[in-house]
Amino acid sequence: MPLSTSAWRPDFFRYVVGRGVSTAGTALVNVVIAFAVLAADGDGLSVGLVLAGSVLTQTLLIPVGGVVADRVDRRTVVVLGNAALAAAHGTMGLLLLLAPERVAVWMFAAAAATTGAASAAVQPAFQGLIVQLVPPAALQHANASLRLVLNLARIAVPGLGAMLGAAFGHGQVLLAAAVAFGACCAVLAGLRVVTPPRAVGAVLTGAREGWEAFRSRPWMWGYALAGAVAVPLWLAGYQLLGPLVLAGRANGQAHWGWAVSVFSGGMVLGSLIALRWRPRRVMLACVLVQLVWPLPLAVLAAHPELRWLLAAMLVSGASLELAVVLYETAKQQQVPEELIGRVSSLSMFGETALVPLAYVLAGTVADRIGSTPVMWICCAGILAVTVALLPVRDVRRLRRLPAAGRGAAKVPERSMSEAD
C-alpha cells in the first residue's frame, strides 16, 4: 500500500498499542465481573443491576462525551478516561484482595457507574482519533487492522483471566486490569496528533449539529435503531445469561472463559477477511453477515455442550467483526471529521439506551423461569430486527467511497447510493 494511503504510521501504531492494552483491561474485567458479584452473595438480578449501572451511566453521558470529543483535544480525553478506569477497578481489586468479606454488591454497582462515565468520554474520542490519524483512503484497512490487534488481545485475555480468577481470586484480576488501563495512559500520553481549530459554542448547539448529521442519513439511524434492540438482547444473553447457564456446571467458569476467547478468535477471522473483502454495497454486506451473529444464544438455549458452543462462538465472532468494520468504515467515510465524535456518540447512545433494562429484566425473568426461554427470546429478537433492515433502500444501496477521500462524505448519500 502506498505511503499516502497507508494506515501504519508511527502515531497510528502508538494508538493501536494504547487501545490494545485498554481493551485487554476491559476483557479482564468482563470475564470475571459476573462471577465476582455472584461470589459476593449476589444472584442473577444483582449481576444484572451491576452491569446495568455501568451501561446506564454511559448511556446518559455519552451524548455529552461526543460533544466534548469534537471540541477538545481527544488525546487528553482518552488519557484521563483510562486513568479513571484504572482507579475504579484498582480500588475494587484492592477491596477484594484485602477485605473480601466486607465487599457488597452496591460497591460493584458504584464502581460500574464510575467506569460507565469514563467510557462515555473515552469511546467517542477513540473514534475521532482514528479519523485524525489515518488517510481517508486507508480507513477500512485501518479499521480492520486495529480490530485485528484488539481481537488478538481478546483471545488470550479472557481465558487467562478466568484461570487467574479461579486460581487466585477475582481481586487480582481486577488489579491486573487496572495496570492495563494505566499502561494505556502512558502510551497514549505520547501520541502526536494535531487538533484542528474547533468552533466554540454551547453543548446544546454542538449536540444539535451532531443530531442533524445523524438524522440526515437513513442508513445510519436505521442501523442504530435496530441496534437499540439487538445490542441489549445480545448483551443480556451473552454477558449475563451465558455465565448463569454455565455457572452451575463443572468447570463452568473456565469453559465460559474459553468460549469468550474463541468468540474473539472468530473476530480475528472477521478482521482478516475485512482486510481483503471490500464490498461495494457496504451496508447491505454489513447487515447480511450479521444474520448469524446470535447463533451462540441458540446453542446455549438448546444444547450448551462445549464443542458446539465453541463452534457457534467462532462463527458469531467473525460475523460481528465484519459488521462492525463495514459499519465503522461507512460512518467514517460519510461523516465529516469535525462531527465524527457526536455522530458516533449518538450511535452508541442508541445501542446502549435499553441495555440496563435488558440486564435487569433478563436477570429477573431468568431467576423465575430459567435462562433457556429468555435466551430463545434474545436470539429471535436479534434476527427479527436485523432482517427488518433489508427493505431499507439506503441500507441496500449505500456504496463504499473510492480512494478519493472523505471530501465526498459531504455529498448527500442518496445521490451516491442510487448511482448505478
From TrEMBL:
GO terms for molecular function: transmembrane transporter activity. One of its GO terms (cellular component) is plasma membrane. The keyword Cell membrane applies. The chain crosses the membrane at residues 12-39, 45-69, 76-99, 105-126, 174-194, 218-236, 256-275, 282-302, 308-327, 339-362, 374-392. Its main location: membrane. Keywords: Cell membrane, Membrane, Transmembrane, Transmembrane helix. InterPro entries: MFS, MFS_trans_sf. It is a multi-pass membrane protein. Pfam families: MFS_1 (PF07690). The keyword Zinc does not apply. It is found in: Cell membrane. PANTHER family: INTEGRAL MEMBRANE EFFLUX PROTEIN-RELATED, STAPHYLOFERRIN A TRANSPORTER. This is Predicted arabinose efflux permease, MFS family. It comes from Streptomyces wuyuanensis.
